[in-house]
Amino acid sequence: MIIKRNAADMAAALASGETTSVALTQAHLDRIAEVDKEVHAFLHVDSEGALAQAALADKKRAAGEKLSPLAGIPLALKDVMVQKGIPTTCGSKMLEGWRPPYDSTVVSKLRAADVVILGKTNMDEFAMGSSTENSAYGPTHNPWDLSRIPGGSGGGSSASLAAFEAPLAIGTDTGGSIRQPAAVTGTVGVKPTYGGVSRYGLVAFSSSLDQAGPCARTVLDAALLHEVIAGHDPKDSTSINAPVPAIVAAAKNGNVKGLKIGVIKELQGEGYQAGVLNRFNESLELLAGLGAEIVEVSCPYFEYALAAYYLIAPSECSSNLARFDAMRYGIRVGDASGVSAEEVMNLTREVGFGREVKRRIILGTYALSSGYYDAYYGSAQKVRTLIKQDFDNAFLKADVLVSPTAPTTAFKIGEKADDPIAMYLNDIATIPVNMAGICGMSLPSGLAEEDNLPTGFQIMAPAMKDDRLYNVGAALEAALLSKWGAPILSHVSGLGARA
Amino acid sequence: MSLKYEDVIAKYEPVLGLEVHVELGTASKMFCGCNTIFGAEPNTQTCPVCLGLPGALPVVNEKAIEYTIMIGLALNCSIAPFSRFARKNYFYPDMPKNFQTSQYDEPICINGFLDVEIDTDEGIKKFRVEIERVHMEEDTGKSLHMGGATGRIHGADYSLLDYNRAGIPLVEIVTKIVPGTGKYAPEVARAYVAELRDILRSLNVSDVKMEQGSLRCDANVSLRLIGSDVLGTRSETKNVNSLRSVERAVRGEMIRHAELLNKGERVVQETRHFQEDTGLTRSGRSKEQAEDYRYFPEPDLVPIVPDATWIETLRAALPEKPSTHRKRLQEAWSVPDKEMASMINADVLEIVEATVNLGADPAKARGWWLGEIARIANEKDVTAADLPITPKDVAEIVALVAAGELTDKLARQVIEAVIAGEGRPSEVIETRGIKVVSDDGALMAAIEKAIAAQPEVAEKVRGGNLPAAGALIGAVMKETEGQADAAKVRELLLKHLGQ
Amino acid sequence: MAEISRDDVANLARLARIDMAPAELDHLASELGVILNAVARVQEVAGQNVPPTSHPLPLQNVYRKDEVTPSLTPEAALSAAPASEEQRFKVPKILGEEA
Ligand SMILES: [Zn+2]
């Protein structure tokens, strides 16, 4: 079945004439039609648009045009990314029916590379959550076990990969929303260096933390997609104006010999599931076996990262989400004769936002309000400095840092819905990377023995050294594959015979 | 019966502060490439950025920074080596993001001053207005309030929003408290705004049209009992859009405050709106329930760290200060203080200068603009500059008078006709057939006719009673419909009558 | 420790323009109290000598040239408007004063 191949292999099949983009796209649309009722990875499937893009890619190929490596390959787009004329909801009722009049830079780059966009994937509302349960359109189910969460906020993107509905997906990562879903679905996800991929057209949750990145089933596929979407964008003032590191080359030549790999003492132990830690330690042994030097590093301020994150992100979101006011776009509630604009805003925001979003808006409003700013937002920004310093010190001792991606495997849908703090703990290992603006990757490290569910291995590298992630990731991936004999996703069980 | 101004100042010392907003004359908006043309069709100059669409991001217009630095330098400010944008969070339908991108505790220019001169009882006196800060922000959209009787916000059924103005670069210039103005507070306020406007015009950074809202003044006024150091509660009067209104608003607020205080009532801290028609202010939004703007650094924009050589280049290129320029003109034209002051007061200095630059004699140019043209402007309740007569027209008229082709009386007719829209001076002269009658034959015929009509007067003149000639000259002028040169008529008449 | 009353939440909801029912205010007050107690620990290490970080990367002076680029057509600008009239966004009557 062609849909079970990696994107790089699909690209080879297109190049050799074995298949066409239209056929490949149709195969994925068929797969979506078959399984997405159960997985619910997609909020919107653009069959017509996807087939048209595929036909265009085929036509260019037939004409002998020089094409990008991913030309004609289907992709799933997280619904937080604006695509002209295509419904973009961010998983929120607030934006129900909104069709943006413009393309995000990521979409423009995908179009320029002739990547075929299948549709928009489900997510926690405005990317706030770790389970995709906060979507106004219902949760996404983990293909490994449909009663479990696929991670969040980008659970739709990760599930679409694990369910073979798409070989590539775009995610966004504010505190772990690419990496944690990758970990719990047995897929690969990369949060690039902040500023490495344009945020123009990414509906903002927390502007100083948000970063779009690639989701895939292999390290090389992630690198190929990363290369398509990365690069300077004059429309994003925080975009890095420097060449993109040689990530594809790194993914093709994974070699850790002589590399120093730092294990962060504070990101293991208490709160981490035994099976998660066991798979993590096995991976470390494999890396050591490949010639890497494993060292232990300490990042003492990481214990404050979660607290700082849950001040900074809500503060920024309280401001970013103020624009949803029923005046210019989105839903409007309570507009009747004699009702004022102010009342309509109040009613629309009450109805249009879900519980978690309102909780964070109120928390952020509090943290920024006069009299509390210094104690909360101001202090959180100082913690951010301390976390950066921790990373700076650690990178003096190691080329990359590693940890488990998430403390546990996928939990049951509904299990943590009423306990925000327990839910927030999912991101304990991924948040420091966003706070410092550096880059991080999660790749599968095997199944936990307790529940036979995937675990993730996180690699972190300094800002603008994204190639190191791919170098180490590719080496580890190859070693794990030869140990397992088959890719981890060959064990996906939730979809039964259809998997 | 309202309190007399003399009674207010006998008891209270006014405390004055001024905030001036200036729309910069850049081609594109502050954070996007939309056009800034005044009066364009509604919503034709908007884009995802200035409409605050989800996902859109701002990028700073370099020219706006340059203009702001120029303003800061012209106002003797220090340019901050590091400044930042911040978000000012509050909801209002004309503000698409529901936050204004502004500057808060890190403005770009600080600590300047501007000296203004006032004609006082003791002669011309200088007041120094200290500038606290000059910062950048963005303008809001415009709302039309529909339905109801007044077209005003109160009583309207709904509103219509046009975002063409949203995002136009705005500079806010904030003074410190201006001490020691005493009874001259209204005049100081006016002179400050006038001087500031002249400076901005000389810098060519704004079209500074108060009536179009490209220069807007908010006047903060409070009163304190003379001899007390307890500051009173201040009111903030907005919507003051002419120089005259600045003066009236300050005076009006001083009287209103004093009336309240004399009655033992308290002044409410609030925003008030100036009413052009009545010269009074009406209550706007009360600031009792303090707004909490929850400022925080704008995460979508990076800090401004202006290069020192850039600042020095801009400083070196600053034009002559309007005050210096005025001194130079006054000397060159040998104008007395009082008359200089009346030109400034009538706001005609610039047009007089333009007229002189076109070759007109300074005294004559001044005479026309301050005399006949000012009179007509006064009648029409507009400023001389707003009349449809140009410095070129006046220079032409002055030249025609000097050449003897027009008399002063005829010149007045031409001016009236030009203002009435009959065309340029040459066209008016042509179509109206205006010309000085200097042909001796034609004049002699008129003279003989006059003598024949009033033989007894002619006798008196022959007898040496020269003043009696006036009646005959008048008759000749009437006969020739004012087109004769009176001096010439007199000369011919006296010669004819043997004198 | 941080205590959040229902009135506090009501005031925050007013600032954030969300029309919350009393039961929601009560529920949120208790949740916020718990969350604030958890996040308040940032104050333990946020000393005077620690500079704040608001931008993850040390970028500065990012500008665009003052050049006009195409705007949206008014049709596109208004395409998602809940209501429009005379090529303008139509909104319910506005109570407050202009800022
Ligand atoms: Zn624009």
UniProtKB/TrEMBL annotation, chain B:
A Pfam family reported for this protein in Swiss-Prot or TrEMBL: GatB_N
Keyword S-adenosyl-L-methionine listed: no
Single GO MF descriptor: glutaminyl-tRNA synthase (glutamine-hydrolyzing) activity
SMART domains reported for this sequence: GatB_Yqey
Residues that span the membrane, as ranges: none
GO biological process, one term: translation
Catalyzed reactions: L-glutamyl-tRNA(Gln) + L-glutamine + ATP + H2O = L-glutaminyl-tRNA(Gln) + L-glutamate + ADP + phosphate + H(+)
InterPro entries listed in its UniProt record: Asn/Gln-tRNA_amidoTrfase_suB/E (IPR017959), Asn/Gln-tRNA_Trfase_suB/E_cat (IPR006075), Asn/Gln_amidotransferase (IPR018027), Asn/Gln_tRNA_amidoTrase-B-like (IPR003789), GatB (IPR004413), GatB_Yqey_C_2 (IPR023168), Gln_synth/guanido_kin_cat_dom (IPR014746)
Residues covered by the Asn/Gln amidotransferase domain: 350-497
Alphabetical UniProt keywords: ATP-binding, Ligase, Nucleotide-binding, Protein biosynthesis
Keyword Glycosyltransferase annotated: no
PANTHER family xrefs: GLUTAMYL-TRNA GLN AMIDOTRANSFERASE SUBUNIT B MITOCHONDRIAL AND PROKARYOTIC PET112-RELATED, GLUTAMYL-TRNA(GLN) AMIDOTRANSFERASE SUBUNIT B, MITOCHONDRIAL
The family this protein is said to belong to: Belongs to the GatB/GatE family. GatB subfamily.
Protein name: Unannotated protein
Origin organism lineage: unclassified sequences, metagenomes, ecological metagenomes
Automatic annotation (TrEMBL), chain C:
HAMAP family associated with the record: GatC
InterPro entries: Asp/Glu-ADT_sf_sub_c (IPR036113), GatC (IPR003837)
Gene3D superfamilies in UniProt: Glu-tRNAGln amidotransferase C subunit, N-terminal domain
Name of the protein in question: Unannotated protein
GO biological process, one term: glutaminyl-tRNAGln biosynthesis via transamidation
Pfam family, one: GatC
Organism for this UniProt entry: freshwater metagenome
